[in-house]
Amino acid sequence: MSERDTVTERIAAATLRVDVPLERGGELAVAAQEVLESLAIVRYADVRELGAVDAGDDGLAVTIDCRLTLHGDNATAAEATGRQALREADRVLGIDRFETVDGPYRIERW
Asked: N or C: which terminal CB in the chain sees fewer CB atoms within 10 Å?
């Protein structure tokens, strides 16, 4: 019999600055979404609006308004831990706003 895997998910609304590679400058929303979804704590990212775009050292610093589905164990998916995990990510340059808007949900998978 297989063992159940339990994760906790929560939905967060955020305004973030992310580092987008210069060669992806023509598709900023998609590139920002891919940057966020490459992070271990982010299951889904929905970029709602693009803001300021500034030139950085290695790419473009893009301000985005987004919804994030964060997932992990109970401790990892907590709002403060989610914010800290984003703050520590190399590709996230800053957090202007971060708040839980839905959840937490406990999800069991086999």
From this structure: N
Residue 68: CA count within 13 A, CB half-sphere = 32
Mind listing the pLDDT tens digit for each residue in 18-42?
999 888 878 999 999 999 999 988 9
Residues whose CB is less than 8 angstroms from the CB of residue 23 and which lie 6 or more positions away in sequence, other chains included: none
Q: Output the pTM of the full model.
A: 0.83
- Read off the tokens for 35: 């940057």
Angle at alpha carbon of residue 43, lines to 1 and 63, rounded to 5°: 170
CA–CA separation, 68 and 80 (whole Å): 14
